[in-house]
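Input record (one chain):
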Amino acid sequence: MSAPAVSTGAVPRLAVPTLGYGAANVGNLFRALTDDEAWAVLDAAWESGIRFYDTAPHYGLGLSERRLGAFLQTKPREEYVLSTKVGRLLRPNPHHAGGLDTANDFHVPDDLQRVWDFSADGIRVSLDESRERLGIERIDLLYLHDPERHDLDLALAEALPALEQLRADGEVAAVGIGSMVSDALAAAVRGADLDLVMVAGRYTLLEQPAAADVLPACRERGTGIVAASVFNSGLLAADEPRRDGRYEYGQLPDELWDRLVRIAAVCAAHGAPLPAAAIQYPLQSDVVRSVVVGGSRPEQLRQNAEHAAREIPVALWQELAAEGLIPA
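The corresponding structure, as predicted from the sequence alone:
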């Protein structure tokens, strides 16, 4: 099922399915997958009805794009929506000595390095190189990836206008940014004509910092949201949360743990799996068009699709709001 078409003007630009697959895992995020294992994951996503796929050069130094592209080349192009990202070019690493890219959590050889380039030429070159790795000419949606990690002012002045020009030239159907930082997301939405922004981990069942600035900005500008990292580093991926679960780059704060336990209890009282509520919560907002989830095993993809289709009682959301666990 697809969400309403996104439009910042009179003409709709791109409709995106409400559930997508984020392909960082097939770029060997956190653990290495063989080509056959990665194919099985993508096949499970497709067989589960997922028709929206997101990747990036950053994911496995191009491995995610190559694997995803090889898989999607076997599918009818009109049946899926494809997004990738720009801002980091992949170039030979002169310091490669047989190591792995584990500093960035990817289990791939570090024979390439990421080079920031927000220039118009760099953005266009990145798109062309992604097309080559994917083996697919038509990319529907192009995001600027993590602009605040390099230079947000330069992104607003050069990179986002370059994306707008690519869209005007018909090279892509829609443009946006992907980020984990609410301030950067809101600034980009207000500073450019964006179709969609990928909000990673900032609008989830557990915490909603994006509700203060990103959602209002998107509502004002007619920009849609693709919610990613909705399991909060895996904390919401199981019915019974674990206290030793990973939280972004450190330990889970006590306040969030207490909130998580209370949310899990409400879900259990309503007979709703916590992961199902986590997937469906962002879609309760009028500006969220899609939720993109990852997964490194076929059964995870099948289960996520089942969670996305599961009926969640309205009373669950009402009780969470009444308890102050989500915004009213």
